[in-house]
Amino acid sequence: MAASAVCRAACCGTLAAGRGSGTGVLLRQPALLRSPALRGTATFAQALQSVPETQVSLLDNGLRVASEQSSQPTCTVGVWIDVGSRYETEKNNGAGYFVEHLAFKGTKNRPGNALEKEVESIGAHLNAYSTREHTAYYIKALSKDLPKAVELLADIVQNCSLEDSQIEKERDVILQELQENDASMRDVVFDYLHATAFQGTPLAQAVEGPSENVRKLSRADLTEYLSRHYKAPRMVLAAAGGVEHRQLLDLAQKHFSSISGTYTEDAVPTLAPCRFTGSEVGHLVGRATTLSQGLWEDPCMCGYPHGSRDASGGGKGASQAHVHAHTPPTPGTFSGHLGSLPVPQPHHVLFQIRHRDDALPLAHVAIAVEGPGWANPDNVALQVANAIIGHYDCTYGGGTVSTRARHGTLASRKRGCWGCGLLYCGVQSVGHRQEGGC
């Protein structure tokens, strides 16, 4: 919705200028938009005019209600909560992911599989996900079933049963997931990338948490986590599709108004400021390589070969070096457009080997630079760039990479590259700025 609002505002400004000059609104667009080569752009500009308006309301307890209405017979409604691994400590890292796993295992009002049966009875789709900064529970359903969908979401968020038997069952499930994630080189390398880019800050923590925490987290820990973080001011009830805002607001008042919006004085959570350290980390395969000091301009590089993310496993050729990190003296800043990025001064950075296995054929490498956060308008531009550039993976026989660039095929044939792509991941704030990401 934020992206559509930005695009819609830009388009409205163009139309207003057209009216002021006496020209037609859509029939007399600039020559650039009339070009046959960019006809799709003109169509996109016209399509923006039909984007529904986003309506936002606020309940007395601080919970926000947002909706975009269309003529569709279906809708998607969900609860987004400002909670994730960034809000966790080293001791309870992984608690949010654990809670998400337990959310669909029954509530105080719908024990056991009663919740699943009720969702199936209306032909709806219920799902959830967790990130470093927020957790979401959402339902896709027919528009006529919106009241039931909101009721179910409210029950999940407020009345998770947290039964001991289910906790132990999901503990085993999560531990199994962690083992499977270790086999996903992409997941591992991006966890390392965050750990390297934001060393010593909560953003360095993985969403799932370490296996040691998963084994130790108790029912009391999860209950305390819910009571501390699941507060109304940190929640948004959002819906899109065949929904009326007035109806959604009434449903929110009915089912969510009892959620607490206050904290006791000693329980107010604080969001620790995070910094982009810009360190470099590497994981190599092949013969031993001499690594020395180098000059970089504030990037973060991370690579990973096939194997476990635990470098102490003693695999063939495995080695681990000391951490060599640096903190830029003057972190980059943004003023609303990409052209305003300052040129950072080079810093001495050392390469670090976390894991190496000479018997394995591939290395996985990711490079990140500090970028704008979700609240920055450049977020929209980077999301578009992400979609345009696409990705390439030779194991899939191709990808969605731009046909003009063709860098994926070229790299595969000439340099042994098996895949490449662009990923933008923004965060709310870094340091004292309401922006940041990599």
Task: Note down, in words, how this protein is organized.
- The protein has 438 residues and is of the alpha+beta class.
- The protein has 3 domains: 2-48, no CATH class; 54-267, 2-Layer Sandwich (Cytochrome Bc1 Complex, Chain A, domain 1), CATH 3.30.830.10; 294-421, no CATH class.
- The protein has helices spanning 2-20, 31-34, 39-48, 95-102, 114-121, 146-158, 164-182, 185-197, 211-216, 219-229, 245-256, 378-389, 407-415, and strands at residues 54-58, 64-69, 74-81, 125-130, 135-142, 235-241, 294-296, 299-305, 347-349, 363-369, 391-393, 398-399, 419-421.
- The chain is globular and about 60 Å long.
- The relative contact order is 0.12.
- Estimated radius of gyration: 24 Å
Order of helices and strands: HHHEEEHHEEHHHHHEHEEEEHEEHE
The low-confidence runs, each spanning 5 or more residues with pLDDT under 50, are: 1-29, 280-298, 304-353, 431-436
What percent of the residues sit in helical stretches (DSSP H or I)?
Answer: 25-40%
Keywords:
Cytochrome Bc1 Complex, Chain A, domain 1; disordered C terminus; 13 strands; 6-stranded mixed sheet; 438 residues; disordered N terminus; 33% helix; alpha+beta; 3-stranded antiparallel sheet
Short account of what is shown:
By secondary structure, this protein is α+β, with helices and mostly antiparallel strands. It is 33% helix and 16% strand. It has a six-stranded mixed β-sheet with strand order 1-2-6-3-5-4, with helices on one face.
